[in-house]
Amino acid sequence: MFSGIVEELGILKACGERGLTISASLVLADLEIKDSIAVDGTCLTVTEMGPDWFYVDTMPETLRRTRLGSLKPGDKVNLERSLPNQGRIGGHMVQGHIEATAPILNVAQDGMALQVEVALPSELRSYIIPKGFIALNGVSLTIIDVLADHFTFALIPYTQEHTNLGEARPGMLLNIESDIIGRYVVQHLQHYVGQEAAIRQ
């Protein structure tokens, strides 16, 4: 499990159909082969590592479901190690299971923050609510507003400086993971309503 609090910006050294090589420093401190790590919010397994890099396997489903398949060497990726048992959850519960990708539609300065507008995937509409949690490229964020076809969030200067969301621009693709608690609630209610309808028939 992750918290959506990015620890480090890694640099993609090499990418292929079977995996990614990423240069890093901070996250390597206690990282071991077989450990989970979130790369732009995608939970992956470390299978090789060196003094300033690590390698993760990427299966076809991962490349289809996330933005990782569109990255190229030199791109920055958000990195977060899995939470230790005694760790604080500074963001929210993030699984690292990407549900969809969506492009940024607009970026505008709003005081010291950047307000960002993102296309809303129709399959996630039930799970994305104003003032709710969302993980974008693995970053825990609060949704500002939700409209018919898009939602908005804001980036404080710290997040702009310490994650790849600081490069936000129209057309940039984002990995999306909605709030797991919200997903469970919606699924439970849909099941309950379906059972009630069946009983009435």
UniProtKB/TrEMBL annotation:
Catalytic activity reported: 2 6,7-dimethyl-8-(1-D-ribityl)lumazine + H(+) = 5-amino-6-(D-ribitylamino)uracil + riboflavin
Pathway(s) annotated for this protein in UniProt: Cofactor biosynthesis; riboflavin biosynthesis; riboflavin from 2-hydroxy-3-oxobutyl phosphate and 5-amino-6-(D-ribitylamino)uracil: step 2/2
EC number(s) from the headed UniProt entry: 2.5.1.9
Database matches in Pfam families: Lum_binding
SUPFAM superfamilies linked to this entry: Riboflavin synthase domain-like
GO BP annotation list: riboflavin biosynthetic process
GO MF annotations, alphabetized: riboflavin synthase activity
Annotated protein name in UniProt: Riboflavin synthase
Species of provenance: Ktedonobacter racemifer DSM 44963
